[in-house]
Amino acid sequence: MQYLVVMIDYGRRGREAVVDPEITRREVVSRVASGEYKNISFIHEITDFAVEDITADILAEAALPDIPAVGADLQASRFDHARDLRKHQRA
Q1: Can you give the residue range of the structural domain that contains 6?
Q2: Measured between alpha carbons, how far is 59 from 39 in angstroms, rounded to an integer?
Q3: Alpha-carbon span 62 to 25, nearest angstrom
Q4: What is the pLDDT of residues 52-70, one digit of tens each?
Q5: Tens of pLDDT along 14-44?
Q6: Contact in structure between 32 and 58 (CB atoms under 8 Å)
Q7: Rounded to a whole number, what is the largest CA-CA distance in the chain?
Q8: For the whole model, what pTM was predicted?
Q9: DSSP state letter for 49
Q10: What is the distance between the terminal CA atoms of the chain, rounded to a whole angstrom?
Q11: H or E segment at 42?
Q12: Residue closest to 45 by CA, chosen among 26, 64, 68, 69
């Protein structure tokens, strides 16, 4: 028997494991690409007694860009820079 487990993280509300023996890899890729599956913690493929983490493979197939977490820091840096410019213009 082979099936996929998609773990979705809802933050403070907890996590949800989507487990459906009838769902195919292609369907999981489709749901990731469409945005139906968001905030994915991991995707595991379970075959008989083996478990394989295929998160990176599925995300690559879905062609989702890897957005680094430092994006928020870059935005904060722009705000800090703009504030500093305004402060120096007043002086």
Answers
A1: 2-90
A2: 12
A3: 11
A4: 999 999 999 898 556 665 5
A5: 999 999 889 999 999 999 999 899 899 999 9
A6: yes
A7: 72
A8: 0.65
A9: T
A10: 72
A11: strand 40-47
A12: 26
| DSSP single-letter state for residue 70 | T
Residue 14: phi, psi to the nearest 5? 110, -165
Neighbours of 43 (CB within 10 A): 24
| Total number of residues shown for the chain | 91
* Token pair in block for residue 70: 């430092």
User: What tokens does 3 get?
Assistant: 């099936």
Which one, of 11, 8, 62, 9, lies nearest residue 32 by Cα?
62
What's the total number of domains in the chain?
1
Alpha helices in 1-91 (DSSP H): 25-34, 55-61, 71-90
The answer to whether the CB of 9 falls within 8 A of the CB of 15 is yes
